[in-house]
């Protein structure tokens, strides 16, 4: 036997031994080994890989998990190291504030494109540092100080819609809203909006979302030279462009040098663009397909804002109960976050008879709470009235309104998002008559893919509308 053959055989033997060791460990000795779920999911990440990457159209594991919860119950081992507990009460236990620490599950995909960002901070303490440095810019008072800028963006939106009335142009409101929110968050973050290349950014960013699953398994962004990567991956082109724009921004020179700031900026723009716009376009679809809801909303807006040319202050819009209920329901039904928000705890967490040990990653699927039939009957139905009235169910629903998350890692941009939602919806429905144009729920609105946030089918053309006239 030649010596190199002996070495090869030893290598093969050691690899085999290692694989057998991993299999035995994951199936019999891992702290999650007795948890319910298919054996294959507990054995290998390839199970998740198949549904998220190989099974068309991609991002299908969250749907498979819904099916598995139906079979195994609320607690499920979903990968070798992760457990998902689809229970609204456990949500409150996991996503906490206060002194209990939660660490992001470090292999969770969030940070692969931007490891220096708030969203990618693994340790609780690092996250606190990053969050504290940003949160003062996103407080309610900070957002309100910039209201005049938001109003000027709304004026541009209304101008665009008035032009559409004149030209009979069909508006893709999904893209229009994304350009609006990109304009706001880029100006908010960099002092200069990226309007010149707005549409290109939005469309390329959507392509980028489609590469998210690949990035989770193949974190190539930091290992392959950027020029090569740009040829291969749309998300790399987006990142490069954004970094270029950022370096042209008004940030001080010293700050521009740091990759961390680039990462942070990227996350703010990603988190602040598609999120609000997706919720708004979902709202538009449901309002325009239900005349009774449209009519209630109109009545409220017409009474509160008699002059249709007047600017609508955020503070005034926030006081309108029906508009508020419509927007809450839009957030609930959109259930934006399909990505698993995975954390580990420093102490064991108990769920019924199951003890989840420190080190195991845990999540609750947001959709499982926002579509919980017991809390939100007929969850697929867009019904703003579930947020109104004196029923004791309303406070319970508010308690489980988790569209913006809970706890230390809840949405940083929640105040900005609400201001955008109120202003865009109030302006659109007070000032314009419109109808849907070739928009099909199954194709254009229904969430069927997990791309970190929920995306409709690959064939979606977006929610499109015809603006009929400017209201008086
Ligand atoms: C309707 C609109 C929005 C919804 C429904 C939404 C929802 C969420 C949710 C559920 C999370 C928690 C994610 C997790 O647990 O992993 C989150 C985090 C975050 N959101 Fe939003 N978001 C919206 C708009 C915005 C906007 C406008 C910004 C602008 C800055 C923003 C910035 C962020 C950031 C930076 C985080 C990470 C926070 C952290 O890790 O501490 N979001 N968002």
Secondary-structure map with pairings?
Layout lengths: L2 H27 L9 H5 L2 H9 L6 H12 L2 E5 L2 E4 L2 H7 L7 E3 L19 H12 L4 H6 L1 H21 L2 E3 H18 L7 H13 L1 H6 L8 H7 L1 H14 L5 H4 L2 H31 L1 H14 L9 H5 L2 H14 L8 E3 L3 E3 L2 E3 L4 E3 L2 H5 L22 H7 L14 H18 E5 L4 H5 L3 E3 L1 E3 L8 E7 L2
Parallel strand pairs: 2-8
Antiparallel strand pairs: 1-2, 3-5, 4-12, 6-7, 9-12, 10-11
Helix pairs in contact: 8-9, 8-21, 9-10, 9-15, 10-13, 12-13, 15-18, 15-21
The structure holds protoporphyrin IX containing FE.
The site of protoporphyrin IX containing FE has 25 residues, from helix 15 and helix 21.
Organism: Rhizodiscina lignyota
Cofactor: heme
Keywords: Heme, Iron, Membrane, Metal-binding, Monooxygenase, Oxidoreductase, Signal, Transmembrane, Transmembrane helix
Low-confidence spans = none
Number of domains: 2
CATH architecture of the largest domain: Orthogonal Bundle
Distance between the ends: 93 Å
Tell me the number of helical segments per DSSP (H or I, 4 or more residues long).
22
Strand order of the largest sheet: 1-2-8
- What's the CATH first level of the largest domain? Mainly Alpha
So what's the overall shape? globular
Helical content stands at 55-70%
Percentage of residues in DSSP E strands: 5-15%
């Amino acid at each position: 036997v030649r010596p190199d053959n002996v070495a090869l055989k030893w290598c093969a033997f050691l690899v085999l031994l290692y694989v057998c060791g991993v299999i035995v460990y994951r199936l019999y000795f891992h702290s999650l080994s007795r948890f319910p779920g298919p054996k294959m999911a507990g054995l290998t990440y390839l199970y998740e890989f198949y549904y998220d990457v190989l099974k068309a159209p991609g991002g299908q594991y969250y749907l498979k998990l819904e099916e598995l919860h139906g079979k195994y119950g609320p607690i499920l081992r979903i990968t070798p190291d992760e457990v998902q507990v689809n229970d609204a009460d456990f949500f409150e236990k996991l996503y906490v504030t206060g002194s209990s620490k939660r660490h992001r599950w470090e292999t969770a995909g969030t940070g692969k494109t931007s490891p220096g960002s708030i969203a990618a901070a693994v340790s609780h303490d690092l996250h606190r540092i990053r969050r504290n440095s940003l949160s003062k810019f996103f407080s309610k008072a900070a957002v309100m100080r910039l209201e005049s800028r938001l109003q000027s963006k709304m004026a541009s939106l209304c101008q665009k819609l008035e032009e559409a009335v004149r030209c009979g142009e069909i508006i893709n409101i999904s893209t229009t809203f994304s350009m609006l929110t990109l304009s706001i968050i880029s100006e908010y973050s960099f002092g200069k909006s990226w309007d010149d290349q707005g549409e290109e950014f939005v469309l390329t960013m959507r392509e980028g979302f489609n590469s998210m699953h690949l990035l989770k398994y193949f974190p190539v962004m930091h290992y392959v030279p950027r020029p090569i990567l740009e040829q291969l991956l749309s998300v790399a082109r987006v990142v490069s462009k954004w970094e270029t724009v950022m370096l042209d921004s008004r940030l001080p020179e010293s700050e521009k040098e740091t990759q961390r700031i680039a990462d942070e900026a990227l996350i703010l723009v990603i988190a602040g663009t598609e999120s609000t716009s997706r919720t708004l376009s979902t709202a538009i679809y449901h309002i325009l397909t239900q005349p009774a809801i449209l009519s209630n909303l109109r009545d409220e807006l017409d009474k509160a804002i008699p002059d249709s040319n007047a600017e609508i202050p955020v503070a005034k819009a926030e006081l309108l109960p029906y508009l508020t209920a419509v927007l809450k329901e839009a957030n609930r039904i959109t259930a934006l976050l399909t990505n698993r928000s995975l954390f580990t705890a420093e102490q064991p967490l108990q769920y019924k008879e199951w003890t989840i040990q420190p080190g195991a990653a845990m999540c609750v699927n947001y959709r499982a709470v926002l579509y919980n039939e017991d809390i939100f009957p007929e969850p697929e139905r867009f019904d703003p009235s579930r947020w109104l009235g004196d029923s004791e169910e309303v406070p319970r629903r508010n308690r489980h309104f988790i569209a913006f998350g809970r706890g230390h890692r809840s949405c940083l941009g929640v105040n900005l998002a609400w201001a955008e939602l109120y202003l865009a919806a109030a302006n659109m429905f007070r000032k314009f008559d419109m109808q849907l144009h070739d928009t099909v729920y199954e194709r254009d609105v229904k969430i069927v893919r997990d791309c970190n946030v929920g995306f409709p089918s690959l064939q979606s053309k977006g929610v499109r509308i015809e603006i009929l006239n400017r209201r008086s």
